[in-house]
Amino acid sequence: MKKRVLLMSITAILVVAVVVVVVFTGASGGNEVSGDTYETAVGKTFTITLDANPTTGYSWTQNIGSPMVVAYVSDVYTPERRNPQVVGGGGTTTFTFKAVATGTTTITLRYARAWESVPAAEERTVTVTVK
After folding, report:
1. Predicted TM-score (pTM) of this structure
2. Fewer CB near the last or first residue (10 Å), C or N of the chain?
3. In the predicted model, what is the mean pLDDT of residues 20-36?
4. Which range of residues forms the domain containing residue 22?
């Protein structure tokens, strides 16, 4: 009886450990865009992660050329993990998109201060083909 309880406890701990690793490492099955072009299928989600530091006043914005092909889902800022945590330290912004129809479109991401009337400090354009 004690061996069975111990075995079940160990199994439960291993399952929880695997789930935690998958969640915290962002295991995504290859849906992270790393270049300037990306190919996917209808119904799939994908992410684009960019360095960011909102304490500087800069933030990333996105613009989809054809929202009928790719839809914006969300964006999340994640501070860099440091010990101790640094005030004003940077991190990353991760945009999530969903392929909603076949076709090709562009996603343009701009890193700028919303109140300034100058060109963005950084810009990235990704061409997405949905099959």
Report:
1. 0.74
2. N
3. 57
4. 1-29
